[in-house]
TrEMBL record:
Source taxon at top rank: Bacteria
Protein known as: Serine protease
Organism: Streptomyces cavernicola
InterPro entries: Peptidase_S1_PA, Peptidase_S1_PA_chymotrypsin
Taxonomic path: Bacteria, Bacillati, Actinomycetota, Actinomycetes, Kitasatosporales
SUPFAM superfamilies according to UniProt: Trypsin-like serine proteases
């Protein structure tokens, strides 16, 4: 697997980063709960991914209701996964660990970030969730994501240790 930051219509502005490791909660392996994971990528041309493109800060423990910007590469007829799309809205809690936000993105957007306090000029915000799945029930389209909490923080910390242990 690879990660291609900034991909758009066959353009690879920062190149291709090879994914070296996938980190997910142990509970996901056992019972398919907690839909969150992190990847560790190798350096490219001697540069770490965050040195090449920057990064987002992890913002765990944020409650739904405040505005987020949701990103993804949906496989819709118009885009076919070739362009980064986004929606902005205020999420609602759907359970103790999940939330959804109005957004018409279709399949293929999974794993895209939900950024709070997104600054479009800087391209930065706080990562508060990731796209898990979409639903078109009840007269509208929504995307659902985890409420990031202690498990997400543990996954992030494990990925960081792998990254720094191996110089990625």
């Amino acid at each position: 697997m690879v990660f291609v930051p900034g991909y758009s219509e066959n353009r690879l502005p920062y190149g291709v980063f090879v994914i070296r490791a996938l980190v997910m909660p142990r509970s996901r392996e056992r019972d398919a709960e907690t839909d969150v994971a992190a990847v560790v990528v190798d350096r490219r041309a001697g540069r770490a991914l965050t040195d090449a493109v920057g990064g987002q800060r992890l913002a765990v423990g944020r409650t739904p209701g405040r505005k987020v910007t949701v990103f993804g590469y949906p496989d819709s007829r118009e885009q076919r996964g070739e362009r980064l799309m986004y929606c902005t809205g205020s999420p609602s809690a759907t359970s103790d660990r999940k939330q959804n936000v109005p957004c018409p993105m279709e399949g293929g957007a999974s794993g895209g970030p939900w950024l709070a306090g997104f600054d479009a000029r800087a391209g930065r915000g706080g990562l508060v969730s990731v796209n898990s799945f979409g639903d078109t029930a009840e007269g509208g389209s929504v995307i659902e994501g985890e409420l990031l909490g202690p498990v997400a923080a543990q996954v992030h910390d494990r990925a960081e240790r792998l990254r720094t242990d191996r110089g990625a």
